[in-house]
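explain this.
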Amino acid sequence: MDIALVEVEEGRVVFVGRPSARYLNPVGTIHGGWAATILDGAMAYCVHSTLKAGEGYTTIEMKINHVRPVLPSTGIVRCESKLIHRGSRTATSEGRLFDECGRLLAHGSETCMIFPAEAT
């Protein structure tokens, strides 16, 4: 999907992506699912960066607000996320998607469930 993880520290993650014509919807903008995917990845990995050995996680809720259309001409976008709360069973994070000029394209929040990971 032309999305890459570029920065990680505990409680903070940055992805970059390049929207392309293959993700156009019928009205000529990048499908909102593409923006949701980069936001979900960043917000979830933000929680992942806080896991202890033997813990797993999964997204249980996500909300996205689309502020501007994303187009193939938008160029490289940057998605920054940070941890809001980390408890023993749930964690919340937020993310923001920006264009190359720093304009906000979309933002969101996510809740993840934390659970004991099974040994494989």
